[in-house]
Amino acid sequence: MACYGMSYLWEHRREGRNDSAVFFACMGGNKRQDREKEEEKGLTKEDPVTCDSGGGKHKLSLFRTVGDVSKVEGHQDVVSAALLIPKEDGVITASEDRTIRVWLKRDSGQYWPSIYHTMSSPCSAMAYHHDSRRIFVGQDNGAIMEFHISEDFNKMNFVKTYPAHQNRVSAITFCLTSEWVISTGHDKCISWMCTRSGTMLGRHYFTSWASCLQYDYETQHAFVGDYSGQITLLKLEQNTCSVITTLKGHEGSITSLWWDPVQRLLFSGASDHSIIMWDIGGRKGRTLLLQGHHDKVQAICYIQLTRQLVSCSADGGIAVWNMDISREEAPQWLESDSCQKCEQPFFWNIKQMWDTKTLGLRQHHCRKCGQAVCGKCSTKRSSYPIMGFEFQVRVCDSCFESIKDEDRTSLATFHEGKHNISHMSMDISRGLMVTCGSDRIVKIWDMTPVVGCSLATGFSSR
Ligand SMILES: [Zn+2]
Ligand SMILES: [Zn+2]
């Protein structure tokens, strides 16, 4: 059943049909659009009004208080991965300082290490399987090491080393049913190895560093995000794999992926500050763009029950997106040699410039209708949350008129992480979140004020 949905998509793509274009409509990176972005950036800097509306003031008013925060301190370097131990007041951390530590909350309310293990190389990724107490730690040297953690979390025994990569391991996942450990690395490949024999089963190379990984355990499909901004969908077999399709939409490296196997949604976060939701299960190539962060999106987590997406960015911003409403797709940007409102030629349209004795204008795009417009016909800015624009973007004058005040109601809540977040993971059942920052501090958040009540009662955004 699952395979069917995916095959539909890739057939679509190959045929290059019109509706498949929609799939890749979101901000497809052509030269003209890149230039547009640069123009927009320049304009934002010069224009304090635009800058304010997109920045601090607006954002502050949206901040919500999330509950208690516990801190775990003591690492000598950045913590590259951290996870909450299910049903325990405990955290496992893997750090660039070469340590794996298991922290348990003591009666004092503070977290103290019960396991402290030093590795031969900095730790870069981690996967933990709670029922079997198996932990897989990826290292900067490309190796993955497997350990077994004791029931009381006081001991960790070495099991195996997997020569998975030639270079830094970026992501790991473990599948108990097939006994596979699947990983991606900075050697530009995905590899999958047998945990019984410790042997390499298969490998597939990409054109750039593979940065993140999600896996559908039931159908053996892997999603791999890379530094070029592409997401590759592969079907893994025992000793071989096939590339199903590539998803292109981001303009910067993919930093995080989240696959929801129930609703069959893929979320991707990127260094272009944006998130895209790829509706794989919908089979129509529908994509939604979410723009609310002002820095690289570093981690995402989708809460399927309440249909909320939690995302964290490098500037410390934490966003909780309401995905339980029918959002609209951002339009594809239209191409034109003249403004589609006032018909004045753009500056590369030499013929019309000559004919009409006018100076060519710069091309911009209205984010709401996608039309190519000149600056004069798009002087206004507006947020438009239903299309994912949580901060103000360029819209044409007629679209601006069509946006009512209630259309500007935010469909996400924004919170301040107060450290530059490099990694995040959640224990969804308890509404807990753990973030790691460039400040070497690990924070454990009670997110129930924003997601917890919703776990029982459904979404309430305010
Ligand atoms: Zn115009
Ligand atoms: Zn418009």
From TrEMBL:
Principal subcellular localisation of the protein: other
Alphabetized CDD domains for the sequence: FYVE_WDFY1
Residue intervals of the FYVE-type domain: 333-404
Location in or out of the cell: Early endosome
Keyword Ribonucleoprotein: no
GO molecular function: zinc ion binding
One cellular-component annotation, GO: early endosome
GO biological process, one term: positive regulation of toll-like receptor 4 signaling pathway
Family annotation (InterPro entries): WD40/YVTN_repeat-like_dom_sf, WD40_PAC1, WD40_repeat_CS, WD40_repeat_dom_sf, WD40_rpt, WDFY1/WDFY2, WDFY1_FYVE, Znf_FYVE
WD repeat spans: 72-103, 247-280, 290-331
Keywords: Endosome, Metal-binding, Phosphoprotein, Repeat, WD repeat, Zinc, Zinc-finger
SMART domains: FYVE, WD40
Function: Positively regulates TLR3- and TLR4-mediated signaling pathways by bridging the interaction between TLR3 or TLR4 and TICAM1. Promotes TLR3/4 ligand-induced activation of transcription factors IRF3 and NF-kappa-B, as well as the production of IFN-beta and inflammatory cytokines.
Protein name, per record: WD repeat and FYVE domain-containing protein 1
Gene name per UniProt: WDFY1
